[in-house]
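Researcher: Please predict.
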Amino acid sequence: MSGTSTSPERRRLPHRRHATASAQEHAGISIRFVTGTCLLSLCSFIWFFSRHEILLYGDAVAHINIARRVFDCLHPGPLQLGTVWLPLPHLLMIPFIVNRQMWMSGWGASIPSMVAYVLGVIGIYKLVAPRVGNWPALLASAVYALNPNLLYLQSTAMTEPIFLATFIWALLYLDRYLRALDQHDEHAATKSLEYCAIALAASMLTRYDGWVYSAVFGIVVSIKWWTWRKHNNNPHNPIIGRQLRRSLIEFMTLCALVAGLWLAQNYALSGLPLDFLNGPYSAKAIEARSAAHGLPAHPGTGSLTTSLPSFLKDAKLNVSSGWLEPLFFFIALLGVGYAASQFRRFGIFLLLLLPIPFYAYSIAYGSVPIFIPVWWPHSYYNVRYGIQLLPASAVFIAMAFYACSTLDKKLLRRPAHAVIVAVLAVSYIHIVQESPISLREARMNAVTRIMLENRLASALRHVPPGSNILMATTNYVGALQDTGIPLRRVVWEGVHPEWDESLADPAKYAEYVVAFQGDEVWYATRLFPQHLEKWVEFETPDKPRVTVYRVEKN
């Protein structure tokens, strides 16, 4: 008998081998998953870069040059980050645009967006997998990763991919915090809360959406902590909950500190803590200037019943198109309904819907216009904002199929997976054939701006090296980037006191003066034309006349 007996250690060996093999297989899948995502990001970037489309957005060009002027400016430093756009994307770009060619071509500034894209795909998977398993998580990741609009935006210097990544990871760590408390793991809950605060701080430094989302997350965190404390209050062991309470205070402090620092930055530059909200370059001021030129108010102004459908339609156009658009929307709605019906298990996913009230309110009362081609005024403006609902669409589409699989196990089989992948592929191929709506927006709005910048750049290439230039850079800084003229040789509206003095004497600090009809420099050249010789003058369609003066030094 003793010869045929098996020791406990030997009986455990097969289980250990199986566990080791499973771990290796999971690690292999993870490596392939990350590698595939990186290759997809890189291939998309190469495609759009080779077609000269990564600098179509005027905002992308502006972001690059805001980052550049932090170290390449008459007065370099953090104050050159400005007051309206939040600083994190610009800070992330700086190491990659120090090189002159990486700055001029713009591809250096795409690197943070590409990294954020990869992190966002990984975050979607890690968010969904613990709740519903691997195949719904892979489906959600595929919907997110393969979206043509996101693939274009991650190839540019736009802020959307960075913000989406920070939002997804903040929600991921919030979910881990909630699950850790349910499992009475105070240490894991504390760590998750700290990481959630860091991700939220990053989101608050990327887009103002993050400020509102952080407040909502803070409410959720506080409610969960309060209920946990009530059920775990032990007067005989006061150490319980102390570490978690300290992390909760740090969570709130960090979010408040981020907001306070940005208000301080605004105050230091303009004397107004809310300059980003109501200053001369805010959305409110831009819309006021548009109204002064006789343009009508944007659709949805003062009306949530109009702004809400407008944003939802924009979001649908960013996820699908054609006859598949209502199908994808219906599937996502099924996922929302299922998550709501299983609120205790999946309620955390409903926070992905926060962009809906935020953008509906912003359109109605925050001077944020969105123009979509299928509705009046049948144009393109800020259509990329609809990409903010892509994480929700990805997760809830996966949730809908997961809900169906709980009713019919056949949906777990490979043929069903093939059908789902085929529908996704057909939809995204259709979008690519039409061109992603964010790319169409960029192309349409870039035509005349790029035409002007190219003509101005052609003139500026003949400026002698070392010459200083007086020029407003709010709208057409791309001409300087195209020529590679160092920004430290430019007197622009953020350089003081040189800018202010130049408006009373344009020839004081510069050898060349660039005036766009109607801007401050244009008025200055008419009031104080001394020593100015007209050098180049041209017009482009729908853009102001450009006059370049050469300064005649005595």
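Model: The first helix runs from residue 8 to 50.
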